[in-house]
Amino acid sequence: QVQLVESGGGLVQPGGSLTLSCAASESIRAMGWYRQAPGKQRELVAVVDSNGRTYYGDFVEGRFAVSKDNVKIKVYLQMNSLKPDDTAIYFCYALKNEIITWGQGTQVTVSS
Question: What angle do CA 9, 15, 21 make, to 5 degrees?
Fold first, then answer.
């Protein structure tokens, strides 16, 4: 069973930066991040697919960068120019053998 452990969430001022990290217990080619705010649907933030291509949610607007370390089996999300609307629980995502695994989630709060 794939296990995912996130870290890096916290409280940040608007316009600030934060980096999230997710470590996987085994090799996974497709990994990334989703987020969910209270009362809203979980939405795509950024994903690296099995071919190494990256996808971003429309709201990202060039502010975030996702990267994957295939040796350490980690995926990172560098977030810049954070807005209050970015406040949500961020979940690490992995797809392997047609099975989706979610991390436990890490809270990101953007507030002055």
Answer: 25
CA angle 73, 44, 21 (to 5 degrees): 30
More confident residue, 65 or 73: 65
Cβ neighbours of residue 41 closer than 8 Å, sequence gap 6 or more: none
Query: What Rg do the C-alpha atoms of the chain give, in angstroms?
Result: 13
pLDDT tens digits for range 41-52 = 999 999 999 999
Secondary structure in 3-state letters for the chain: CCCEEEECCEEECCCCCEEEEEEECCCCCEEEEEEECCCCCCEEEEEECCCCCEEECHHHCCCEEEEEECCCCEEEEEECCCCHHHCEEEEEEEEECCEEEECCCEEEEECC
